[in-house]
Amino acid sequence: QVQLVESGGGLVQAGGSLRLSCAVSGSIFGINAMGWYRQAPGKQRDLVAVLTGGGSTTYADSVKGRFTISRDNAKNAVYLQMNSLKPEDTAVYYCNALIRTSILRTSDYWGQGTQVTVSS
Q: Which of 5, 8, 42, 94 is 20 to 30 A from 24 in CA distance terms?
């Protein structure tokens, strides 16, 4: 059974930093892309950053220059380094991965979510 296991959320003051981690567990054939989304209370889930298998990155405009996504292919893991955090970054952050579970099957997986709270 494929699972995404997240860690690294918490409470931090504005201007501080946090690093989120997400690792894929279970038997897989490969990973096409990994990324992070976030959902604030009462709002929709939005893209924060995504990293494709080819190394291309996409960031939400609101986090450009402050957040960095990276990936460790050997560990099937993705990370989100968040610097200069703002109160508006407060949300539940979800890891997402497009995973090949066989030669013919690719599926979308989500982590359980980790809370990030930035105090002013």
A: 42
